[in-house]
Amino acid sequence: MRIETVSCDSIILRYEARIDEAILDKVQRDYFLLQGREGFIEVVPSYASIWVRFDDKIYSLQNIQQKVLDALNSLAPRQTKTDSRLFEIPVDYTKGPDLIRISEYAGLGINEVIALHTAHTYRVYAIGFMVGFAYLGVVDQRIAIPRLPTPRQKVPKGSVAIANEQTAIYPKESAGGWNIVGQTTFDDFEKFKIGDRIRFVSVRSEE
């Protein structure tokens, strides 16, 4: 991990730049150690980095890096618990308008695509784009399809989608270029936190 200056009141901790669960565990641990500390105004984790905005009345660029290192090294193991929660998300794959395209891209049947998408337990690597939008990984390479060449103007709330090695759920209606594989009735997106585990369960709606 290295620390870089971003501005007069923010720094960024950079880890190895790849999608990897071991790196996510390090990011999650360090995020929990840094958040809520005096003078740390915002602590925002991502795939392989943590952005920290600090109170420049308390810290300077000359001492903030050492303060961060002290924070990461000062707490006992019992205080660095990073246990993640498991969410099982019901998905109606009959409402996936891009399933045929994904099956053609992968050279697989639609049921095989669904089986691959539900077989893996995903981790929350980052939250962004909009409140509650959790970036989940890692999708099986056989169905890791690129984003749509032209984004949709409206993606319905609850759409479950894939873009390359990531999958996600749209927490509200918005524009978007991800490939929609199904729809969920889950509606508690703000519960998601970095490191949480997500498992998709195939269901059939009664509509």
From TrEMBL:
What does the UniProt keyword field contain? ATP-binding, Hydrolase, Nucleotide-binding
Give a single Pfam family match: CT_C_D
Which GO terms of the molecular function aspect are on file?
Answer: ATP binding; hydrolase activity
Residues annotated as domain Carboxyltransferase: 1-192
Task: State the SUPFAM superfamilies in the record.
Answer: Cyclophilin-like, PH0987 N-terminal domain-like
**Transmembrane region(s):** none
**Source organism's superkingdom?**
Bacteria
Q: Does the keyword Transport apply?
A: no
Q: Does the keyword Hydrolase apply?
A: yes
Name of the protein in question: Allophanate hydrolase subunit 1
What species was this sequence derived from? Sulfurovum indicum
According to the entry, what is the taxonomic lineage of the organism? Bacteria, Pseudomonadati, Campylobacterota, Epsilonproteobacteria, Campylobacterales
